Structure formats: structure tokens, C-alpha cells
Amino acid sequence: MASRASVPSLALLLALLLSCAVMMSSAARMLEEEEAPPKEEPEFPPHLTVPEFPVPEEHKLPPFPEVHLPPKPELPEVELPPKPELPPKPEIPSIPEFHFPEPEAKP
């Protein structure tokens, strides 16, 4: 339970809270009653008409030109050096399993 000294301060806080609530509700009511002025929409000129272009009935492409390339030169066979011997793959060390010790029973 609250002490006698804190009762007046609690009453004061409650009064402040109530006054704030009353002010907020009256401000909200005033905003609701206010009518917003109607917004004027800008007038735009009418859209321009797009001319219709004639569509060709059939697309004819010019004949593909013949291309005469010189013959490919024959390349000599190249001997590659033998593949080098690689050392054996090292074994990856395994991670030892770890278990937390079980807590000892308390007497």
C-alpha cells in the first residue's frame, strides 16, 4: 500500500493524466470537425493522337552474301610434357570427440 506522503503526488499525477486526456480528445474533435479545403486538380491538355504507320505485309531480307575464306593452315602436333607425379594426399586429422563430464551428484 502507498505511504501517506506519496498519496498527494499520486493524486497530482492522476490529475495531470486526466487533463492531458481531455486536451487530446478536444483537439481530436476539433480536427474532425474541420473540413479540409477541396484540392484543385490541375487540368491537362487532351492527349495527342498518334499517327498510324503503314505495316509492310512481308519482310524480305536481302540474300546472304557468299563469303570465301582462305583455307585453314595445318598446325603441327605439339607434344606435351608428361604429367608430374604428385605426392600422396595428406590425411586430414580428425577432430576428437568432446563430451562434457557429468556433474557429480550432491549428497
TrEMBL record:
Keywords: Signal. The keyword Signal applies. Residues 31-107 are annotated as: Disordered. Residues 1-27 form the signal peptide. The keyword Signal applies. Residues 69-88 have a biased composition (Basic and acidic residues). This is Uncharacterized protein. It comes from Digitaria exilis.
